[in-house]
Amino acid sequence: MTNKFREFIQKVGSGSHTSDNLTRAEAATATKMMLLAEATPAQIGAFLIAHRIKRPTGEELAGMLDTYHEFGPKLSAIAQPVIVLGIPYDGRTRTAPINIITALLLAAAGQPVIMHGGGASGERSYRLPTKYGLPLIEIWQGLGIDWTGLSLEQTQRIFEETGIGFIYTPKHFPLNQTLWEYRDQLGKRPPLATMELIWCPYAGEAHIIAGFVHPPTEAMFQAALGLRGITKYTFVKGLEGSCDLPRDRTAIIGLSSSNPAILTRLQLSPREYGFTTKNVPLTTTEELIKDMQGVLTGKASELMQTALWNGGFYLWRSEICPDIQAGINKAAELITSGILAAKLHQIKMLLS
């Protein structure tokens, strides 16, 4: 098997003039061999860095997704389409994340959401390379929701009753954890990190929403999802590669259309919707949690403005509201009426 994997390294690592792309089947096999440790540590490290330098193709990402679909966890299908939020596992360091509030808003309005990631586990706090930023799981814990000890069956029950599910990879996908040491030692995100943004740990119809930083990533996402048969997606040039819309610049967004070959471009200026053009900085986790709790109770703040801006867009994109302004108004209503806080309380009660 190690000889087989060596062929993959030779193919992607032969330099700018002679390297070649993997086929979808080869990328799937390479990912499987890494997850199952059928390749040697030296081979895995060499492949990950060589593949990053070459840059992945959409076909290669599709092959990686094939293997994650085969070996990874999946929440069972429910009666309506689900949004899957793809957010970098290594978290945030500069700007305050709002995606958990966005997920609660969507679920409170009747749109189910699935999130996924790793990081802190119980009383032990550790952060993921290469950014070592604040991960989703720590924010959930700060709000009183600890997903880390739940079985997949328990997560499924909460998902079905509340409209929110969280795939915690250290618990639900332990094979995935075998590769994190390589990321730490290499100091660079491998193409696996790109693939994770469009991974769908769900067995039914899904709308994939993924953040990105570099424009070529969109084309890779689109090609990979097309090969996987996923036709509903949204790509956001968001804060620190997340799905969070920026306030300091025009939001650049790619939307799926009826023609799979066409990516509809949307540019949104926060100023046109009455929002000031500045992002909320991330200070301490404690301060962020305090500000989020203020949003849940309807307290006016800069983070509240970020919540309304993002909530308005996503309530429109999920077809709950006819336009973005209506989505902003709906988000404000969900917050001030206490429905948003009630959604968080519902999850807490199921965990108690």
Could you characterize what this model shows?
This protein has 352 residues and is α/β, with parallel strands linked by helices. Helices cover 47% and strands 11% of the residues. It contains 16 helices and seven strands. The chain has helices at 2-12, 24-35, 41-54, 58-71, 99-108, 136-142, 152-162, 169-172, 174-177, 180-186, 191-196, 216-227, 285-296, 302-317, 324-336, 339-351; strands at residues 82-86, 113-117, 164-168, 206-211, 233-236, 251-256, 263-268. The chain has a seven-stranded mixed β-sheet with strand order 3-2-1-4-5-6-7, sandwiched between helices. α5 crosses α16. The longest helix is centred in the C-terminal third of the chain and has 16 residues, at 302-317. The model has no long low-confidence stretch (mean pLDDT 96).
Could you list some keywords that capture this structure?
alpha/beta; 16 helices; globular; 7-stranded mixed beta sheet; 352 residues
